[in-house]
Amino acid sequence: MEERYTIDTPENIEFAYTIAGIGSRFLAAIIDSFVIIVLQIAIWSVFQFFLSNRLNLDLIDSQLAAIATFLSFCFLWGYYIIFEMIWNGQSLGKRVLGLRVVREGGRPITFASSAIRNLIRAIDFLPSFYGIGVITMFIDRRARRLGDLAAGTLVIKEGSTVTLESLTKPAFAAVPPTSSASASVAGVGVDGRGEVKLTLENIHVLNDRDYQLIQEFLSRRNELGSEARLRLGSQLASGLQARLGVPQGGEIDRFLQLVVTEYQVYRQQQTRM
Questions:
Q1: Is the peptide bond prior to 10 cis by the omega test (within 30 degrees of 0)?
Q2: Which of 28, 63, 30 is nearest to 47 (CA)?
Q3: Structural domain boundaries in the chain
């Protein structure tokens, strides 16, 4: 099964989604099934109450049963559609597990696609509790059941929300101190006394914004498609190499890690002065 679903836009921008696995979708289905069962019990409990007490209503037993059956049908088949429309592709179970239904191409789910995928749920459920659906999800590389294939949808994991606070927090809030061991691994020189020495002579031309930009790229590079990751990484490394006066090229990730480590050392040296 593919773990990532990559979308190329006409503007040559790539978006990558993490495809929800069978385990997380199964747990979401258990939560939703429990909620539906509770709703069904509530409906028929109310029906039994009216049936036993009458409450002077001019309704015969068959009419009460018809109303209860209709409401039961609406809750059973409308539960997913209603919530997927209200919460943009999420049922209660999916919301708890951080999953969302989207159309192919990453577009929001529509009423038609939601209705199709949920009406075919009856087939996916056979012979019991998503038997056919699970088999189809094992076969399909994007873990789609029959309803998803018919509606052109797939279930993805939601990424963590990026807030203004997370983007404007101090660049050094979560930076661990640089040890000689980690510096050696990153490619930074260590002198005979075990102290870190700088190999990038012009590291002082960089600032905190440059450092934060590199950190953002390194921490989120796995969320990008391969082409976008290479393109953005090359642009970032090329600009830094030009400013630092070092030869162009080389291994992008290793160079960026080197810049991060040396800038940490430079900042610590400046603090001690």
A1: no
A2: 63
A3: 4-157, 164-268
100 - beta bridge partners? 156
Between 61-86 and 22-53, two packed helices, what is the crossing angle to 10 degrees? 150
Alpha carbons 202 and 35: distance in angstroms, whole number: 62
- Taking the chain, what is the end-to-end CA distance rounded to the nearest angstrom? 54
d(CA 92, CA 96): 6
Helical H segments across the chain, by residue range: 22-53, 61-86, 92-97, 111-119, 121-125, 131-139, 146-151, 164-168, 180-186, 208-220, 226-244, 252-272
pTM: 0.59
Task: Please name the residue that has the structure tokens 């400046």.
Answer: 270
Mean pLDDT by 10 residues, the chain (273 residues): 68 70 92 93 84 60 77 87 93 94 90 94 86 91 93 86 44 42 45 59 87 85 74 87 88 89 84 70
CA distances to 32, 99, 157, 187 from 160, in Å: 23, 12, 10, 32
Pick left, alpha or beta for residue 77 (phi over 0 → left; psi -120 to 50 → alpha; otherwise beta). Answer: alpha
d(CA 258, CA 260): 5
8/16 Cα distance (integer angstroms): 9
DSSP 203: G
Give the residue carrying structure tokens 């052109």: 152
From CA 209, how far away is CA 215, in angstroms rounded? 10
CB 24 within 8 A of CB 95: no
Length of the chain: 273
Tell me the two tokens of residue 185: 């691994």
